[in-house]
Fold:
Amino acid sequence: MNPSRTATVARYLVLSAMAVAVLLPFVSIVLAALHPSGAQISGLSLPTTWSWSNFADAWREANFSHLVLSSVIIAAGVVPLAVVLATLAAYSLATLDPLGGRAMSVAFVLGLTLPIELVVVALYFDLRQVGLTNSYLGVILAETALFMPFGVYWMQNHFASIPRELLEAARVDGAGSLSILGRVLLPISWPALTTLGLLYFMWSWNQFLLVIVLMQNPDLRTAPAGLGFFVGQYSTNIPLLSAASLIVIGPIVVLYLIFQRNFVSGITQGAVKG
Amino acid sequence: MRTRSLAAVAAAMVVALSACAESGGTEPAKPSDVSKDLTTENITLTLAYTDDPPTQALIDAFHALHPNITIKGQQTPFSDYVKSIKLSMAADTPPDIAEYNPGAMRSLVPAGLIYDLTPYEKLYGWGEAFPASSLEVLRSNQAAKEYGTGGLYAVPGALSVLGVYYNKSMVTAAGIADTPSTLADFEQDVAAVKKGGKAPLSLGGLQVGGFQLWNAFTNALGDESQYRNWVYGKPGSTIQTDAAKQAAQKVIDWVNAGYIPASANATADSDAQANFTNGKSAYLVTGNWAASAIEKAMGDNVGFFLLPQATAGDSVVASGASVAYSISSKTKHPNEAAAFLDFMRDAKAATVQFDTGFMPVNNETAVQATGVRADIAADFKKVVADNGIVPFPDFASPNMIDRLTSGVQGLLSKKTTPDAFLTSLQESWTEYHG
Amino acid sequence: MADTAPLARRRPRRRARRVVALLYIAPAALVYVAFAIWPAIHTVYLSFLDWDGILPATSAGFSNYTDVFTDPTLGPALWHAIVLIVFFAVIPCALGLLMTALLQGNVRGMTAFRVIFFLPQVLPLVAVGITWRWLYNDDGLVNQGLRWIGLGGVTRAWLGDYNLALVALGLIGTWAMSGLCMVLFLAGAQKIDVALYEAVALDGGGPVRRFFAVTLPALRGEITIASVITTIAALASFDLVFVTTNGGPVDRTTVPGLLVYRLAFNESDIGRASALAVVLTLIVIVFVTAIRTLTREKA
Structure:
C-alpha cells in the first residue's frame, strides 16, 4: 500500500466517521418511530414488528391536518411576497441609483444581525392593537419583514454581479426600468430567485418563536410550533413523538435533497462578507 | 454621519411613541342584562381548557341538554396553558369561557378581561349550591393582590385533591400491609420498597411534579391556615416557616436516601406517570385528575391515600383545587356561558365529574365508586369535612411557578439549600404583594 | 432621447429618475419598517417602562436595565449564552478547520458527504431538540453507547444534570453547526492555488506549516461567515432550549431568548423582557463586530 493510498483510505474513514455522527440521531428516531406506539425502547434497537401506524396516529393526535395547513398557508404567503418585494428593492438599489440608496442598503443589512427576540415583544402588542394576532396575515407580514434584509442583500449582490453592458444596451434601446427588469434581468436570475425562495420557505417552515407568540389559537399554529407543544403531552411515547418529528422535518428534508446545491450556496454565500 | 441621522430618526420615533402611552382596560368588568333565559338560536362558544378529563365530557353533557348551544373546546397541556392563557384572553377574539388558573390569570382581573360573576352568583344562588371552600379560592379583590375575598371570577366544574398513588403488588411484595397513618410510617414504607431493590417514587422534576411533593410535605408538617394566607396574599404572610423548611430538607433527604430517582430533573410529569403505571416505581404523588388514566393502565392494582400528617389523628390536609371556568368579558353570549357554569352543580354533571376521576361539586349526589376512585372519594370526603383543602402554591404570584420548579430542581440536585429555596419564593411573593 | 436633451434639463430629469427608483423600494421598505424596525424601536421604548401588557404603564427609568445585571436569573442567562458560543461556534469552526487540514486536496464523492454534513442546517430546531431529548434520555442512544464501551458508571439523564445540562445542550449545537463549518471550509480550500502549497513544500515546510501559512489565511472570509452565523445562533437560541430543558435544572440552562419569552408572556413583565432583549441585541452586535475586526486584522 503506497502512502497516498493510505492517505486516501484515512481520509474516507474520517469523512465517514463524521457522516455517521451526523446521521445517527436520524437513524435513532426513524427506528424509534417504527416501534409499536408506547413501547419502551432503549437506544438503537430494531423493532420486532414494524409499525407504520405511528405516523397516522401522530398525525391525528397532534392535529397535523390543521398544523400543516397553517404552515403551508403561511409559507405560500411569505415566499412570493417576500421574494417579489426583496427583488424589486434590490433591483432599484443595485442598478437605479435611488436617492439615499446607500443609506437604505446599510439599513437593510443592519437587519441581518437583529435577533428575533428584540422584535417579538413589541410586535405582539403592535399587532394586537390592529387585530393581526391569531391571523395568518400578521405572521406572513412579520416573517416577510424579518426575512427582508437577507433577500435584499442576496438579490442586490446578484444584480450587482450582472455585467453593466447588458443594462446599458437595453437602456440605449429605450427600454424603461420595468421592462429591463422583466425582459433582461429576470430571465437570467432564476437560479438566484429559486435559492431565495427555497431559503424563505425553509425559514418560514422552521419559524417557532414568532408563531408561538403571535398564534395563541392552537388550531392556527404551524407544524413545528404544534410539535413543540406536542412534546409536553407525549414525552413518554417515544415512537409517537419520533413519528411526529419526522412528519415535521419530512417536507424540508425532501426539498433539501432535491435542491441541496441551492440550500448550500444560499446559506454559505448569503452571510455578510467580513 | 449616516448613523447619526438614523439615530436622530429613531429618537424622533421614540418621542412620538411616548405621546401614545401604553394602555388598556382598567375596570373590573361586571356583566349586565343577566338572565336565566337562553337564546333559542344556534350559537357556538369556544372554551379554552387544559384539564381533560373532565372538561370535554362536561361540554358534551351540556350540549345534550342544550342542542342549540355548541361549545368548541381547545385543549393545551398544562405547562403551556399557564404560559399562553393570559395572551389568548387578551386577544381580540378570546375564547368565551376559559379554565381558570389563579396564578396565571391574575392580571386578567384588574384588566377587566374576565367577568366578576357576582350578578350570576346572586341570580343562580351559587353561594349555597357550591362548597364554600371551593368558591373561596376563586374570589379576588379588584387589584388581584388578595384572594379569598371580593368578587367571584370563576365557578368550579370539578374538584381535585393531591395524594399518593401506590402500586398494590409492589408494596405487598415489600411487605407493607396497610396504608400509612403518619408521615413516619410512610417513610418506613418507602424505605422498605427501596430495601427490596425497587424504586420507591417516580417524580417529574422537569415540570410541576417536583414542587407538588414539597407542597405535600409542607402541608403534612405545618399549620395550614398560615400557608393558606400566604397563597391568598394576606399582608404579612411568609413561606419561610419551619414546616416549609423541614419539607424542603425532606426532599433532599429522600434524594440522599435514593428514594427519588437521579433522573428526576429530566423527567416530565407525563414521564413520571408512565414510569409508575409501567411498574417502575411503587409510589407517585399527583392529583386525582390522573385517576382515570392511571386506572386504565393499572386496573385494580392501584390504590390512593392522602399523604399522612406528622401526628396520627391530626385532621387531614391536602392541596386541592378545582377545574374552574371563567367567562371572558368580551363574550357575545354571557348568559349562555353562565348557564354552562351553572350546569356544574347539576346531577348529570356530577356523574360526569365522578366518572372522569374528579370529585363532584354537588355533594348531594350519591356516587357509586370502585377501585382507586373509591379510595379517592373516601379520602376526599374526609378532607372536605375537616375543611383541610388548601390551594396550590403556584397561585401565590405570577412567577411563583418558575421559582418553585427551578427551586425544587435545586433541592433535587442538592445544589440549593432549603433556606435559599424559601428565600427565593418569599422574594417573588414580596415583589408582587409588596 | 436623453442624449439630445440640453444639459440644463438633464439634471432634474436624472433627479426625477432617482426619485422614481424609490418606488421600487417603497413596498419592501414599508413592510420592513412597519413589522421589523418599528417593533424593534418600540421594544427599546418599552424597556424604559413598567408595564404588564394590560394595565396602564408607568415610567421605569433605567431600573429594568439594572435588573438585567443584578437579578439572580437574568445575569446567568447572558453568561449561558456566551458559554454556548463555545459549543455553537468555536468547536464547530475548529472541527471544520481540522477536517480541512486532514482532507487537503480533492476528495471524490464529496457531494454526498456535503449533503450529509449540511443536513442539520435545514432542520427545524424544535425537531432537533426533540430528537436529542430522546438520545440523552436514560435509555437513549448516548447512554447506550457509553454502556457499550464500558462507561456504564457515568450514564445519567444528561439534560437533567446540574453540572452537565448546559454542556449537553451545547453539544446539540455542535452537532447542528459543525456541518456548516466543514462545508464552508472545504469549499474554500478547493479554491486555493496548488502552487502556494508547492512553494511551502519547496521551502521544506511540513503539513502543519502548510496549513498555517496557506490554508488558514486563505479561509479568512469563510471563517468570518461561519463564526458570525454560529455566534448569532448561540446568542439568540430559543427553540432548542424551549423543547429540551426549558431552562432547567435550577435555571442552569436559561438563555436570554427563553427569559424574554417567559418575562413577557408568562410573567407579564414587559419592561424587563424588553430590556433583556435590548441587552441581548447589543451583545450580538458587539460579538459580530469583534469577529469582523479580528478576522480582518489577521490579514
Q: What stands out?
A: Residues 7-46 of chain C form the longest helix (40 residues).
